[in-house]
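Anyone? Bumping this.
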Amino acid sequence: MDTWLNNGFTRSLILWFVILCASVAGVHAQTPSTCMDCHAALDPPLQVTQAQFSQDIHAQKGLTCESCHGGDPSKADMEAMSKAAGFRGKIQRNQVPELCGHCHSDGAFMRKYNPSLRTDQLAQYKTSVHGKRLLQGDSKVAVCTDCHGVHDLRPASDPRSKISPLNVADTCSRCHSDAKYMQGYGIPTDQYAKYTESVHHEAMTIRGDLSAPTCSTCHGNHGAAPPGVDSVRNVCSNCHVFQAQMYDKSTHKAAFQSAGLPGCVVCHSNHDVTRPTDAKLSTGPAGVCMRCHKPGDSCDQSRAKLLQDLTQLDDAIKASDRVLGTAESSGMEVSEARTEQDQARDSLTKARVTIHSFKTDLVEEDIQAGLKVAAKTEAEGKAALAERDRRRKGLGLSLGIILIVLLGLRLYIRQIESNSSNVGTAELHH
Amino acid sequence: MSATLRKWIDERFDWAALTAPLRKKTVPTHDLSYWYFLGGITLFLFGVQVCTGILLLLYYRPSASEAFESVQYIMTRVQFGWLVRSIHSWAANLLIFTAFCHMFSVLFLGAYRKPRELTWITGMLLLFLAMGFGFSGYLLPWNTLAFFATKVGTEITGQVPIIGHGLKVFLRGGEDVTGATLTRFFGFHVALLPGLTLLLLLTHLALVQYFGMSVPPAVEARWKAVPSEAREIKFFPNFFLRELMAWYIALGVLGALAAILPWELGAKADPFAPAPAGIRPEWYFMFMFQTLKKIPAKVWFADGDVLGILAFGVAGILWLLLPFFDQTGGTRGRKLVLGLGTFALSYIIAMTIYGYMAK
């Protein structure tokens, strides 16, 4: 709606009025920065309020508008924005990385504010797809302010920050999920949708594990780029260390490399990494082995053996669980067996990690260790149930004896009271 | 054999003279005389507690690092340890239940009236001590539930005006519930409280012996009007054998509970873990706990919790002095006491149920 407020002439009048008022006020109040006096009243994107800027980490560290935009905010009128005062005005997108890097790449300068902050962001940015494309003149790619925000820039440790681990995926998806915006780049725009289905997203948002992977964990942040086929294993192994060690022992490593397949991603996918189950080893729809292997070959036989081993241990733990659960619900104390059972679960977890070596003998070792513990805990559960039954029999016997004694007492009372005159007239007490 | 033994005793102690009061002692018998068994059952359960408590002492270790493991050892390794520990836990709860029933039966049957005021007062003090036994014993297995319930319980004590903080620190053995609290509670549970209980119990029993069993006012009036209706039986053996039957029934109930529903141990207390949801005190503290939970933070200008604790304190003192509100023998005092009794019983039952139903 084109109201009088949206009218350009009216807005200019208001702006000049505000500047005039601010100049008059400045005479008396000695305002240190006059920028906000006008910009607070403007419409976005020119609007910057004091409330907004006070949240900015730079403002909190003592930096002011002039630190980025130049000029002289102590001046009360348009003189503040004069070329003579070094006013740079709105920073062009292609100038943003260099401007931020001016301070953030200066180790001596940054040490005064945050000695632990890295100072290679600009150098890394130049290696990223974003940075390279910007240099080639593509102004649509992300620059510092797109991810970090501007004027209300918060550190990553602040959960409201756009680059807080909780918000990184949302921040990236603002461009990468926008099919129209991404048109022409030739990459899919369903990464965020897939990521929200993944076990990593679940860990981050449901379990609140801020160390869980988000976009920047695998792609890098300032040097963001898709990991190459060869480096996928290195990316995943940052967290999945033992799986990677086992994968290195496997025949798959060399085979995948020679076939140009991206390691872990072949079986686990990338953005939509779901919780892996033993069914991945099956020949069913969830199975992944038979995508490459032929039925009946030696690899298929190993697959079947691995699946059988894992299923056997899983079943043994479940059987032990059932017996111990029954014993517990009967009130039996089996906490020691419960603690031991954790060892069997650990063995199963270890076997599921060792699977990545695809060596049946290595997996067999873990399976046998787990089966031994599961058998022991199941036996302990059965012993507890046998003890429960013994107790109940003992109780039945005791109650029988108590009942006989009660009957005997009753008969004895009847006998002594019928033989003598025990019951008589009372002399009332008090 | 028994004749020889009798002769041996007679030559030294004059057994006949010693047991004469027992042979002469009688107990009134009427429609409501089965309520007389409650005190005896409570006494029996106290005896069970002493015996099982001594057995538990053989293995229990009162330190934060060993308490849980020692109870676990008792439950799993010691022959019949599970039975002893379960009976000790169940008997503790049954004891407090029968003590409550005994108290209310004494109240509703008017047995607190002159000259038995001191019997009531010693009985009430014994009930408070039994609750103290429960509170201190609850912590001893050093499991999660007990740890946090003790934390909440002692925190409430800290709300008492003026002496609250000192009392809390005294109970906890410091600012927080730690191993020092466990050692302290163990001391209360096996030394201080048993000593006080023994003293009061002997006084209570001596007073019961001295005054004999009270006859309910309605029965008393009826017997006064028609003296030929009054009945009594000899304490020994007639009443004693009936009491013995009651004890056997209590033993059967205890055994069944211990065998079918053994007292669970739970998980070891971890002072650094967050408090689990649904921390509740033992059932006999529930009505007080629920009341304190429901009192608004501010009542007029006073702190709600402080007000609640003061109210329970005043109610406890008034309850202790209840017999003195019914001194005249008239119906007014009796009605007041009956009204208060009915209100208290309804309140305790309602708030206990509410406490368990509320999330």
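Late reply, but here is one note on the structure posted above: The mean pLDDT of chain B is 92.
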